[in-house]
Design a protein that fits this description.
single chain, mainly beta, 2 helices, Hypothetical Protein Tm1070, Chain: A
Amino acid sequence: MLIRFAVKGALLFVLLLTLSPSHGWAQGSEYIFPHMVDGESGTIFYSTSFLLNNASNLVTSVTIRFFRSDGTPWMVDLRSFDKNELGGRVSSRTFNLQPRETVELFTGGADPLAAGWAKIDSGMAIEASEVFGVFNKSPVFLRSEAGVLPAPAATLHTLYTSVSTDEPTMGTNVDTGVAIANLSGAAAVVTATLFDRAGIQLTQGTLRLEPNRHTAMFVSQIFNNFTFSGRFHGMVRFSSNTNIAVVGLRQAFGASDTISTLAINPDSTLGRITVYDREPNDSRPQAQSLGSLPAEIIGTMNTPADGGDTDLFSVNLQVGDVLYVFAVADLIGSPLDDVITIRDSLGAQVATNDSFSNGLRDPFIRFPVSINGVYYIEHTGAAGTSTRNAHYRLHVLVR
């Protein structure tokens, strides 16, 4: 693995040694953190914290496992101020999170420098995040830290990339690092394509990752046949034949080094627009207009006064169009019993549905358009199920 081992590159090196997943674990809600670092190196030491929160009113069992970059169990010096009994030299811990309970776990940072990854399994969905900390040894103080979210896996990912000198000021240089992990049992052949700021393709590279392996490097090393100069801003698209997890990091070199994580959402999330339910949208004059489709509307069936709610969304349709609307609430554990109604420009009902299938309260509508005009998607909650936790996803498509 080609990583610059100079002082200014060492930080990215330890950050980007990433996951090699194991199989056969008990499945619940799972959270993969593709990098964690612990231990001492020269005048600094590294510690990784995990912040867990059970937002529900039920107890849940949580297991956290630590692995070296080659996938073998990693015995870390685990500590916790919140649950002292969880501390010790362990490669995994299983414990209960009580209703509304939070806990922070962190590594001691006193061992020889090592890197790996962590996986958290929970019987119920929890909030889980990671904080990577870089500390000065003597005197002890925090030099830098970066928050990390669980990493998604997909076949297509896009990463914003900077490889720049004197940015944003003289004497500060920026580089972008990336880690790619193959989560499957088949070899991953990953094509990396570099684009400039205007979207013009510049070059390509190919990476091969054997099953459950990973690689980590700077973007400039992936495209070693391309010369980066001055201030380069662009993007890299990773395309793989198997699901991979990708982690991006931005490192700034100057009088001191700083790091930040970069959001990398799978390209599959870019195939639809996202719209958030915004109150008031209870009447046709207040309806939220939907432009580009398909769209996913993320909302809660609740008024600002905590009353029964109606959410309206408008869309322009032409003769021959077919409008598809699917509400997802019951399917994702929401107590909402919702109803979809389609109304024309005058407010007349032209279609409605309460439940799409026996045993499932989520509604679905397929509406062929026979008259041009503005139509309204009216989404309501039945039987008093409009509450602050009556969340939903509304998927809208026109063909």
